[in-house]
Write the structure tokens for this entry.
Amino acid sequence: MSDQTSQEPTMEEILASIRRIISEDDAPADGAAPAEEEAEPEAVAEAALPEPEPEPEPEPEDDGVLELTEKVGDLDVYTPGAAEPEPEPEPLAAYEPEPEPEPPYEPPPVAPGEGLVGDIAAAAAASAFGRLSKTIQMPAEGRTLEDVVRELLRPMLKQWLDDNLPQIVQATVDQEVERIARGR
């Protein structure tokens, strides 16, 4: 431990070294005379110190500004080569008019009395559809399909609730009573 303490510089030596470095930095601006004056009192302290390693010269700071007098170096400059010839466009095909659309399908005419449904059944179906359209009254002003569905579902929902709601409520109450009884 004593070897390490003898090799370590004292506080005065460290301060002297700092003063010397500062004076060396200021010497070119102030002249060489002040640097020599400070060096004499420190000569005794420096003699005991090992020679400090010379500091590397500071690199010039790059402020990101390119001066026009500075040489940039090799630049990759785009030099266009021989232009590739453009491919020749394909010759246009001769104009062909669009084919006429096919006429819509028309079923063959059916002679009266030869249909799939007899006259009486057809009249009954037409009568039923007529009643349905009068009942629904679609599309009446202010009445939407949602309104019609609501009116048709209301009686069915009422019937289902009348049939099932008492059992659902009873089962839920029984489960709650069991849960409370187990908690005690």
About this structure: Residues 32-36 have pLDDT under 50 and may be disordered. DSSP finds five helices and no strands in the chain. Residues 150 and 157 are 10 Å apart (CA to CA).
